[in-house]
Amino acid sequence: MTQASAPTAHGTIARVRRRIQVLRAGAALGEATGRTLLEPLGLPFVPMTTAGSAQEAVAAAAGFGGPVVLKALSDAVIHKSDAGLVRLGPATAEQVRDAYAQLRATSENLGLEDAVVGVQPMIGAGVDMFLGWVRDATFGPVILTGMGGVTVELFRDVARAVAPLTAADAARMLGSLACAPLLAGYRGQEPVNTTAFCRLVADISALAMALPEVAELDLNPVRILPDGTCRVLDVGMVLTGGAPAGAGGAVRPAPDLRPLARPDSIVVIGASRDPAKPGGRVLRSLRGHGFTGALYPVNPSGGEVDGLPAAASLDDLPVVPDLACIALPAAASVDAVRECVRRGVPAAIVYASGFGEAGADGSALEERLRRAAEGSRTVVCGPNTIGVVSAHHRMAATFSQAVDGQVLRPSGTCVIAQSGAVAGSLVSHELTQGYGIGDWVTVGNQTQLDVADYLAYFAGLDTTDAVAVFLEGVVDGARFRGALRTAREAGVPVVVFKTGVTAAGRQAVASHSGALAGSESAYRAVLEQEGAVQVSEMTELLETAWVLGSVPRPAGRRIAVVTTSGGAGSATADLISQQGLDVARFGDATTEALARALPAFAHAANPLDVTAEGAFAAGTLRRTLELVADDPGVDVTCVVLTSIVGQDAVRVAREIADAGGPGRPPVLVTWLVARDLAEEGMRLLAERGIRVFAEPARMARAAARLVAAPPR
Q1: Which residue of 139, 227, 277, 464 has the lowest C-beta tally within 10 Å?
Q2: Is residue 19 in a domain?
Q3: Model pTM score
Q4: By the 8 A CB rule, do 470 and 541 touch?
């Protein structure tokens, strides 16, 4: 199937699907059956003739002319070479007869009653590639390609992307391979013409979308000949085991989350006089963090709760509130949602656990909750959530202790998490360091609203500069991709920490929140295609999001390292280089000015050690950083501080902050001393918009992500 033949091929898709549907679900199909099914679609298979006797094999070989390949074909054996079912290069009639007899004997010994012998012409030398797909339950077909033959199994050098793909997408996939230099013409070799192969990748992508009955397809090898044409030498297929896995359900309108994220009035249903209970904690959290809208406690006994008059029921309220915080047990929460729907409350948070994550009975209860809100204008966050927090709106609709004693400091970072406990821990760490969280939502069981809904909504707010997502799994892959695309088109970076990438991790996810985690490769491919950044350490999630959302984009990849320790400087320069960044070379004017500013024994080169004498001399560090920042060959300045504590820490932090500013390269800082010894200095840097890292490796990764990030 080529670009030219694709329209014709679409006319035969229905017939191919009907042929597949009569086969056994989940069946693995070898080359003979695979070719029979797919050849009508115009894939560039090497010609093959099946032979029922040695004489027919000789005749077929004569028709092709020259050396041939004989194969014994059976759906019971996918890897024919491993089973001794391939003979390469017979040229004479006698050699063809011998090869045929050998294959027949081997087939009988293996008990392959369905085996047939195929005869193919030998194809000229070229570059062998692998091409295929695996159908992911969440995102649909994941297209895979790499160097072919046994190479793909040996080195695992495979590029992955989720269909549909264009030829340009395929070219980018090839460029991402470790073996890409071999295709580009390594050490004087002629470059491989991959144009036709990239078109074939796009066609296979379209075919994967059109044949949901095929779970897996392997075209291995696909040989790229010197003239750029492609020939498929072998094929294997696996059919889906039941209903074909897809990439999501029907598209639904984006819900209005303003009443949930920016309510003007809130009711706490289940408000408690006991500050240890969720209903007491939520009410006190809202009041303690300065929610300025109308606030109504609901308690069946009436009276007062936390100094506010309490209504006995939702019907007793003077207005219909924007948001209902439902702090009741699971079964009672379902009834409360029904009441919210009846009264027209536009948003509700259900905090209770005991739903889908708790087994069969909980799943039945969660289905009742889903039906209670279905078809209404009420959007439901949760259940099994710790709530929604907005520093921009001075709203902490949560029972989490993560915000106790903390100031809700606005920032451009938004957090969307499928684990309330993890999110609370990460958020508390970020708040303690002084960086702030703008909005924070834990999605719970996603009975109605899911990660995609929150991501699309918050990415569209002017207050959001970056989104951090703690992700266990999504049900609707297409909607999740759409939300990622919405964020990318809005210029909002998305940073993701994905759990459940191993079999053990997936099992833990299912028991924790009922979410189904897709395969690691599919998620990784989708995140890469849609421009999201995936981090491998939990504590990097908010750190990376803050950097990408708050630090100006550098003009290039040239990094200056300024340090108070020569050893730390050289180690950081190594880390910078390992990230594929350039260690900047200072210009002559900068070097001369640095030599005048620093102690005589300092070496004015990058990495630049200001020495202990320079670090403790007031103004020296600031002057050094100003000179480095003004060098036209510097795009980012990375500062590594060691044992500078107490009031010296405050002075040094102020000098670093004062040396930066508009028009100068961004500054990142690593401070290696124990935090409590330099707390004031570190917080001063946070307040001045400079990120402090605990480890130079993390700073180097952040610099690399800044350099790679698209302009804002």
Answers
A1: 227
A2: yes
A3: 0.88
A4: yes
